[in-house]
Amino acid sequence: MNYTHVDKPIRIGKSLEVKNRVVRPAHATNFGNGVMNERLINYHAARAAGGVALSIIEILSVHPSSPGTLRIYEDGMEEGYRALVEAVRPHGMKIFQQLWHAGHAAPRADGGPPWSASDVVNPRVNVVPIPMTKAMIDEIVDAYANTAALMEQWGMDGIDLHAAHSYLPHQFLSPNTNLREDDYGGSLENRCRFTIEILEAIRARVSPDFVVGVRVAPDETKGGVGPDELTKVVALLEERNLIDYVNISMGSYQAFAKIIGGMHEPAGYELATSVPVAKSTTLPTMVIGRFRTLEEADQVIRSGDADMVGMVRATIADPDLVKKSLDGNSEGVRPCIGCNQACAARPLGVVGCAVNPATGFEDTLSENLLARVQTARRILVVGAGPAGLEAARVAALRGHEVVLAEAQPDLGGSLKFAAMAPARQGFADILFWLEQEVYRLGVEVRLSTYLGIEDVREIGADKVIVATGAMPRYDGIQACNPGEPIEGFDLAHVVTSLDLFSMPAQEVMHAVVVDDLGHYEAAAAAELLVSRGTTVEFVTRHAAFAPLSEAAHMTEPALARLQRGDFTVHTRTRVKEITHEHVIVSPAHDYLFSNAPPERRLRADKVVFVSANRSNRELYDELCDLGMDVEVIGDAFAPRFLESAMREGRMAGANC
Asked: Are the C-beta atoms of residues 99 and 147 closer than 8 Å to each other?
């Protein structure tokens, strides 16, 4: 494939040449715990080695009033930055640092009120900020300039002023958050004054060759800074020669799901608001928007929509995306599926990846560290869900003779059912990639093959990896009252989400979906039913709809789609009984009632019960009793998420 446009150098500022058009815009990893450390350096160095031309390092807090994932005022920062520069330079990658102050978007570490343009509350922080005085403004402007000067001294190529996503400069720019009546509020010129003063102070402290750029974001919420007004903001900055490039994103804390669009969003979903801004300036421009392949990036540049394309999540999933694609191996690129489960939600507190276990562990789990074995072993992997597929793939990469046995007639396990849900087809992308990889590597795949002890013995493996997954419990137990199984749970019209996605479509007039987990599984079941015209009542013991998907930016988009149909949510509610025609529910906290708690009857032709699964460990336990070399991974070990299955599959395959 021809990547003529994306594989072309570009000059930014007076003299900086960037070798291609692929950029990694700033994104929080939390690896550094405030400082530039070895883990964060390894993370960026891996993407540099993979062909990325420019990385913008995650938010660097310029002032103690706004603690960030990196903080300029921590000890040891100079040594860390110089080590970063030394690590990426051999690969030809340029690096900018994003300068950041959260304003009202983050609470202060000392418990004090956040600083902002006005006393407008951030919807996700809910702490009233104090409007900044002129002395405060001058102090923050000086902090930005000091930080930029240090970045140049420490070897960075430029800075990226974060004036988007409801952070402090954006709070001054937006009429939604700037209610001031002084020189910093009211007219567009006044609302731009804070940003202009920051950039003027930076320009006064750095050399002419040091690149200075700005990140902006069209805000589609009512009263926000929309694309039309943002073009005027960019024009004001450009005509004053304050910036060398424009980095265009989307969203705000009032439209949070648009900042990191999930798999329901198409590639380039931000272009409708970004392109008008990009085409209004003569400066180099960057756009983002869930671009997954180098072909998609090339198309953006070929069409003249922008000069550079941001590919953060795609290069989290595969650090070598650029190199592989330019070398003619685009099929070998591990796809980003846009699930946001590990990168945005960060369940471990740091950025991860559902499909790439090496993210954040580049020094131990990278595929580039895998060495081929001198003596091949015969490896049996039982179960071809994500954990089993990854284990088989990695073991084959190392040169082992691998047999992959799957009881079902096709590969995928839980992945194939996840991909059946509306707006969740991205799961099919990683399944397809894993399938083609195991076949490409010569894994012996045995479908429709259920293995017992004697079957395993007959195969004669040196090691057995059990990845037999998990199944629904079918016990009607809810976590809020495990001693009281649901009466009527055994009725024929009560199914699990696995049953729902496995069975042919049926005409269902009224359904109740019971969510005992709080993850996306029940939401997916509800959406499938609503898409078929079913009236759905959603019952959850949690305080909100799918709360554990909120951090992955999935909850609000799912609700928006569901509410186009006949859909109702009942929070803090549990099921007491299921009859042939109704589901009887009561408050989840009914133990607090001295008398009988209030009950409601919800009409239901179908009941979908979503609760914790149970591991299929029987084969593993039996093999352990026989003293075999056996390992259990994925949901067979304990039911969890895709990232856990992939990580354990990677480690099992690597340790064969």
From this structure: yes
Beta bridge partners of 539: 514, 570
User: Residue 480 corresponds to which amino acid?
Assistant: C
Is residue 452 within 8 A of residue 466, CB to CB? The reply is: no
Do the domains at 370-471+615-654 and 474-611 have one common CATH topology?
no
Q: Which two tokens stand for residue 166?
A: 């409801």
End-to-end CA distance of the chain: 36
pLDDT of 376 reads: 97
| Letter string b/e over residues 508-525, b meaning 16 or more CB atoms within 10 A of that residue's CB | bebbbbbbbbbbbbbbbb
Instruction: State pTM to two decimals.
Output: 0.96
- Residue 561 predicted with pLDDT over 80: yes
DSSP 441-453: TT-EEE-S----H
Residue 645 has pLDDT above 90, yes or no: yes
Say which range, 207-216, 249-258, 574-583, has the weakest mean pLDDT. Answer: 249-258
Q: Which CATH class is domain 10-332?
A: alpha beta
CATH architecture, range 370-471+615-654: 3-Layer(aba) Sandwich (3.40)
Q: Residue 247: which of 221, 200, 283 has the closest Cα?
A: 283
User: Could you tell me if 379 and 656 are in contact, meaning their C-beta atoms sit under 8 angstroms apart?
Assistant: yes
Summarize pLDDT for 503-536 with one digit per residue, the tens.
999 999 999 999 999 999 999 999 999 999 999 9
Q: What are the residue boundaries of the structural domains of the chain, listed by start? A: 10-332, 370-471+615-654, 474-611
Mean pLDDT of 39-53: 98
Determine the pLDDT at residue 110: 85
Residues 6+ apart with CB under 8 A from 139: 63
Pairing verdict, β 573-578 and 582-587: antiparallel
> Do residues 414 and 386 lie in contact, with contact meaning Cβ atoms separated by under 8 Å?
yes
Q: Residue 251 class from Cβ within 10 Å (0-12 exposed, 13-18 middle, 19+ buried)?
A: buried
Angle between helices 386-397 and 642-654 (to 10 degrees): 30
How many CB atoms are located within 10 Å of the residue 452 CB? 11
Class of domain 474-611: alpha beta
Q: Which helix (H) or strand (E) holds 606?
A: strand 606-610
Which of 215, 252, 219, 221 shows the shortest CA–CA distance to 234?
A: 215
**Rg of the Cα atoms in the chain:** 27
Long-range residue pairs from 169-174, CB within 8 A, at least 24 positions apart, any chain: 169/101, 169/194, 169/195, 169/198, 170/103, 170/217, 170/219, 170/225, 170/252, 171/103, 171/104, 171/105, 171/116, 171/117, 171/118, 171/120, 172/117, 173/225, 173/233, 174/219, 174/223, 174/224, 174/225, 174/252
Q: What is the mean pLDDT of residues 621-650?
A: 97
How far apart are alpha carbons 99 and 151 in whole angstroms?
10
Instruction: Determine the Cα–Cα distance for residues 96 and 208; give it in Å rounded to an integer.
Output: 15
- State the chain's mean pLDDT as an integer: 96
Mean of the pLDDT values across residues 417-446? 97
Task: Fill in the amino acid letter for 478.
Answer: Q
In this structure, the dihedral spanned by the alpha carbons of residues 571, 422, 273 and 174, taken in order and rounded to 10 degrees, is 10
